[in-house]
Inverse folding.
């Protein structure tokens, strides 16, 4: 069915040898056409990439005339240009075309594949290179960022994004840990380490003194990470610190970050700048790492049944202390409730699925918890874009998916042959065990486009089947490669446990009971792949000790123009879209209309529902949308957000088909309790997850959008009766202050006519601070309408005087539709959907600056004329902005408080509107729609609000991530 290796194992020697027997992969075309180069199949265009500094508007990156396919979004092109193009800007060595970038990487892979004997002939190598090129060009998959940074350049050929280190109970080892970790951070990657071998602070040194304990050494590592980050790295240092649950210092470890969070609160209340990136936050410890506790089945069983649990010394394994398991579990959950740390890693589950236990246990993970393997090892990642395999009729391209996995896993294995590593220990382990991490992105978009709720049995069936097919195909190809260039060096001593894990994967696949057509077809093919792969593995072994993980897919997800990352659902139903030539527009996600069509809605209903989403940001009460279809459009945040257990159940559905684990944080609402956290952590163990972390909204002080400093002396909240939770926050009662207008104030009166109904609008303003009072007069004094208008005017005026921004009223009342409506006598507002629509458009024109109005899509007649002239000039020069806007389902100028459909004559203004400085990402847009701040950090590179990507965050503005990329 796919490209296959020649039968026979004559070429098998060791993984380091060249293939001398002449056997190799016979490569067949899947995506490409013989005689046509992939570059000749697409239309190319030149663009200018200009990135500005978010603080002062100055230009911090500029490269003009870069070459990309017309189909690539502005955001994808910007990120690739700024992140991945090599060479100094302004020099002849600087890359300027996507062709150069892809060729640099693919040519290196092809050359190495030929050198190490992967292909049967040069013709097969050429087809392989063309297929990889086509897939990268059409955003079918992407390698992880280090590949784009380093492969084919004079720099070390670093291809791995994920690292696991090891530290022993000696000062030399601890200092080596600092040095190795720093070297990895310097290169922009992250690492994880388990500190459980370090003796506890309750044990003695050989000199007779008391040991420092692992927590004290964490301080030094944390300071080192913070220094390297602040010394010029493009993102925060990404690191994971793990401690086993039976370590005598476990309670101190659990409390570290929660205690620091109390310190942050105290410093904030004293007036220090404790926001993320603030000047004073660096004085707080342990903020550069994710913390996780390694829990055993023994401990979780003790939690379940009640009873004691022994904490054991590191030197002799003797019991130092016996504690109550439930109390410790509650303490862990309490700390996670307070500050989102620690997460849990389920040790026995992890090692039950370990292919190489004879070499050593799995003790640690990378910072995002998806890579779990041997100490001093690394993993290179690549992710497939699942939406590229969804057919127009709702089917799934099973055959193309299988063949694509073959290409990608082959390329990933080839990369280990030429890769460089930050330390020799990591290099030796990785070359000997050849850990790979194929994964995917856009699962949430695929499910929505297919009309399947993320939190549903059908959605989980499809997800499990696709994941099983991916990993089954990857291991089948790995077995074929073992027959050509040999199994991994550590396979011989681990052959039986490796085969056992492969049988476990196959048995889990057999347990899927699909009900839908797509899930049935995918699972059927997955069964074939596992059967064939295990047969080949029994004969040849496997080339790779690990094949798959589910990574965050942050930067590369943006590169592939994915709507969703990794295993995540959609963040929200509306997002920003950057336009060629500058500017941006807010659109309803493209997945939504596709989902509605797959559910059988006619086109006119699709348009009405999309317009409702544009107006409200959610599907509740959308015209014609059946309530039973609401769950299809549930997202991670917003009006209808997926319940925390919905995320856990999805993780449990796909975990049995992943070699490693899943990078994902389970978001919980602010009102969640410690008991809710305990339930999530306990269910994660019961459902067979390998790792799990939670985040409760607003649990951290260092919020990027803090608006007021709490008052000292505010009363503490009292714990409800029966609660044993520690009170960690003070409730601050905030009272807005009314700022009255002076006795004498400037004002203006405008007469208007809307659909034949006449009236007067009088607006009074502060002498130096904008609108403060509104009076509306319509109909005769004493009539019902006059009374309603008077009351409405007073309400709006009081709101303005208490500090409600005018743009909030404008965004809420524009486009309100009721009679009278129609033509007006105002040249700047020719059509109005209602009197309210006209009044607040007029107020916006008179009292809001251009930048705010551009964000809201409200312009004067002169401004519209100027924009149309600019648009015409742009079209004449080849920059067709309006066409770009026309591709979106809702062509509306977008206020920061939510998408708003504008009158017809303003539609064309969207593309030319100046982008609003206050809204620069989908997360900020969602905050504006729901009126609530999201707990996401600001990008340290460009200042844009980041959005979640697995257990990390990614910046939609520049592509920077807070962890694995």
């Amino acid at each position: 069915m796919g490209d296959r290796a020649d039968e026979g194992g004559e070429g098998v020697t060791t993984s380091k040898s060249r293939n001398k027997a002449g056997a190799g992969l016979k490569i067949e075309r899947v995506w490409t056409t013989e005689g046509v180069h992939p570059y000749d199949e697409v239309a190319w265009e030149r663009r200018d990439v200009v990135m500005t500094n978010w603080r002062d508007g100055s230009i911090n990156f500029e490269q003009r005339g870069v070459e990309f396919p017309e189909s690539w979004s502005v955001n994808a092109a910007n990120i690739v240009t700024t992140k991945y193009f090599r060479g100094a800007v302004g020099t002849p060595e600087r890359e300027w075309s996507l062709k150069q970038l892809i060729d640099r990487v693919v040519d290196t892979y092809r050359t190495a594949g030929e050198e190490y004997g992967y292909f049967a002939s040069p013709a097969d190598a050429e087809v392989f290179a063309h297929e990889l090129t086509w897939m990268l060009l059409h955003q079918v998959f992407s390698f992880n960022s280090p590949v784009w940074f380093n492969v084919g350049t004079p720099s070390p050929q670093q291809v791995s994004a994920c690292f696991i280190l090891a530290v022993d109970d000696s000062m030399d080892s601890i200092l080596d840990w600092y040095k190795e970790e720093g070297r990895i951070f310097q290169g922009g990657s992250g690492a994880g380490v388990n500190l459980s071998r370090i003796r506890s602070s309750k044990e003695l040194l050989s000199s007779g003194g008391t040991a420092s304990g692992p927590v004290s050494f964490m301080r030094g590592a944390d300071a080192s990470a913070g220094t390297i980050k602040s010394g010029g790295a493009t993102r925060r240092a990404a690191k994971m610190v793990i401690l086993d649950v039976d370590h005598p210092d476990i309670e101190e470890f659990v409390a570290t970050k929660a205690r620091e969070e109390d310190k942050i609160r105290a410093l904030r209340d004293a007036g220090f700048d404790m926001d993320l990136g603030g000047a004073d936050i660096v004085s707080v410890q342990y903020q550069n790492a994710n913390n996780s506790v390694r829990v055993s089945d023994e401990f979780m069983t003790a939690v379940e049944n009640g009873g004691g649990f022994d904490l054991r010394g590191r030197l002799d394994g003797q019991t130092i202390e016996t504690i109550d398991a439930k109390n410790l579990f509650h303490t862990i959950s309490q700390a996670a409730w307070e500050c989102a740390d620690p997460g849990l890693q389920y040790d026995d589950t992890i090692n039950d699925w370990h292919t190489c236990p004879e070499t050593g246990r799995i003790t640690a993970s990378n910072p995002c918890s998806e890579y779990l393997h041997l100490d001093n090892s690394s993993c290179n990642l690549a992710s497939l874009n699942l939406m590229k395999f969804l057919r127009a009729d709702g089917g799934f391209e099973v055959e193309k998916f299988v063949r694509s996995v073959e290409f990608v896993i082959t390329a990933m294995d080839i990369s280990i042959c030429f890769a460089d590593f930050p330390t020799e220990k990591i290099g030796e382990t990785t070359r000997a065990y050849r850990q790979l991490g194929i994964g995917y992105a856009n699962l949430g978009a695929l499910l929505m486009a297919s009309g399947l709720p993320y939190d549903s049995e059908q959605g989980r069936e499809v997800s499990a089947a696709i994941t099983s097919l991916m990993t089954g195909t990857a291991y089948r190809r790995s077995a074929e490669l073992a027959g050509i260039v040999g199994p991994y060096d550590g396979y011989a001593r681990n052959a039986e446990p490796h085969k056992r894990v492969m049988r476990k994967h196959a048995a889990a696949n057999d347990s899927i009971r699909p009900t839908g057509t797509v899930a049935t077809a995918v699972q059927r093919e997955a069964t074939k792949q596992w059967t064939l792969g295990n047969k080949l593995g029994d004969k040849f072994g496997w080339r790779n000790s690990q094949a798959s993980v589910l990574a965050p897919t942050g930067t590369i997800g943006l590169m592939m123009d994915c709507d969703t990352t990794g295993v995540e659902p959609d963040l929200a139903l509306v997002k920003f879209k950057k336009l060629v030539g500058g500017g941006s527009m807010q659109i309803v996600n493209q997945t939504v209309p596709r989902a509605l069509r797959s559910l059988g809605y006619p086109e006119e209903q699709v348009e009405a529902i999309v317009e409702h989403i544009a107006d409200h940001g959610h599907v509740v009460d959308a015209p014609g949308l059946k309530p039973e279809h609401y769950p299809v459009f549930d997202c991670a945040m917003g009006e209808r957000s997926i319940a925390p257990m919905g995320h856990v159940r999805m993780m449990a559905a796909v975990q049995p088909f992943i070699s490693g684990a899943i990078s994902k944080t389970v978001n919980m609402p602010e009102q969640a309790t410690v008991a809710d956290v305990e339930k999530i952590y306990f269910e994660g163990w019961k459902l067979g997850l390998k790792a799990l972390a939670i985040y409760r909204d607003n649990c951290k002080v260092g919020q990027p959008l803090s608006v007021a400093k709490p008052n000292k002396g505010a009363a503490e909240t009292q714990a409800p009766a029966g609660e044993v939770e520690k009170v960690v926050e003070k409730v601050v009662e905030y009272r807005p202050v009314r700022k009255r207008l002076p006795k004498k104030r400037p004002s203006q009166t405008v007469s208007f006519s809307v659909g034949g109904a006449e009236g007067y609008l009088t607006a009074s303003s502060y002498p130096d601070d904008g609108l403060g009072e509104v009076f509306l007069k319509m109909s005769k004094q004493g009539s019902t309408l006059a009374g309603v208008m008077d009351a409405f005017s007073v309400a709006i005026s009081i709101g303005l005087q208490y500090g409600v921004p005018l743009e909030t009223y404008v965004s809420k009342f524009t486009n309100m539709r009721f009679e009278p409506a129609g033509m007006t006598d105002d040249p700047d507002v020719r059509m109005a959907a209602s009197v309210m629509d006209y009044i607040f458009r007029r107020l916006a024109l008179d009292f809001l600056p251009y930048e705010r109005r551009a964000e809201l899509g409200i312009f004067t007649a002169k401004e519209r004329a100027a924009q149309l002239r600019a648009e015409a000039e742009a079209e004449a020069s080849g920059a067709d902005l309006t066409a770009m806007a026309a591709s979106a389902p809702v062509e509306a100028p977008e206020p920061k408080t939510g998408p708003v459909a504008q009158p017809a004559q303003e539609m064309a203004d969207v593309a030319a509107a100046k982008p609003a400085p206050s809204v620069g990402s989908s997360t900020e847009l969602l905050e504006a729609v729901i009126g609530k701040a999201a707990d996401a950090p600001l990008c340290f590179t460009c200042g844009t609000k980041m959005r979640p990507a697995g257990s990390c965050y990614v910046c939609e503005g520049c592509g920077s991530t807070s962890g694995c990329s």
Summary: Residues 747-848 form one domain.
